[in-house]
Amino acid sequence: MTAPKKIIIVAGARPNFMKVALLINALKKKLGKRALLVHTGQHYDYQMSEVFFKELNIPKPDIFLNVGSGSHGAQTGKIMEMFEAVVVKEKPSLVVAAGDVNSTLACSLVAAKLDVKVAHIEAGLRSFDRGMPEEINRLATDVISDILFVSEASGLKNLRREGVEPKKVVYVGNVMIDSVIHNLPSIDRSGVLKKLGLQKKNYGVLTLHRPSNVDSKKALLEIYDILNVISSKVRLVYPIHPRSKAKIAGFGLEAKFGSLKNLTLVDPLGYFDFLKLVKESCFALTDSGGIQEEATYLKVPCLTMRENTERPSTVSEGTNELVGRDKKAILAAVNKVLAGKWKKGRIPKYWDGRATERILKILQKSL
Question: Which of 31, 87, 134, 324 could anchor a disulfide with 100, C-beta 3.0 to 4.6 Å?
Fold first, then answer.
């Protein structure tokens, strides 16, 4: 008699949780104990992890690896070692990994080496910048995946160019947007604006955490100079990533950033509070990937402090523009927003709240 087939869903870092929340709940409902959630623990403090489980109603992980932080090599290796034991014991038929973090690549590699099928959510996204660790994770994961779930049209083009078999590729849409749509009532009920003394459309949201922006004193001083000018025009709210906070402190710049009277530094926010903050802002200034998508759906101007994006539909169709760390370009963009002249944008294909439903149908067929 053949043993019942199992699926393992992998999550490990803040961007993963909203991508798998609806999917793991749906799979648990259909498969019961044959659907396992493995939390690698890549993000391990409350605001970066547990608060998302609570707010998004994600079931308690069946397995928690608790790997913690570390260099890319050390963290990836530790996840692989621990996840291998899980796969050997549980014998899943399929491992589902989302996004582009170290957990995504590590768990996909383990599954592939043990001859277990891999499904990658958000396949085909490319920044074409191999200086970004996430780009290496995306490329390597897609090469070894058996099912590639694509979130936007550029993913189809990229995978076709890279020679991926068309039968492996499925255009399902954006699971991040599923999460936004599903949780809009809770997002709208958030009291974060009142708590921070904010008025709708009267402030900008800032998020910065990428090495290119926070790993050198020179870059941080350039950003300080930019923020000094922007904050003279409009209030800025910065939910500061622990990594960025540590870098600012390490370079002795805490007092400098703290002296910006119209910049409010707050701890990382939960999902509902953060999306409410973005939704009601007049713009987001960011180097995040996910916020480019969320801002596009919410029709909020997005100024991305990067030279590239793996989500080009947010620029060609949405509300996003790349401004790099160019002071002149950033200030021109802010002035354009404040003058009410920013592009309106449109929502890309399949960003309709049904991507998870499409993925679920494919996974059921694969079992």
Answer: 134
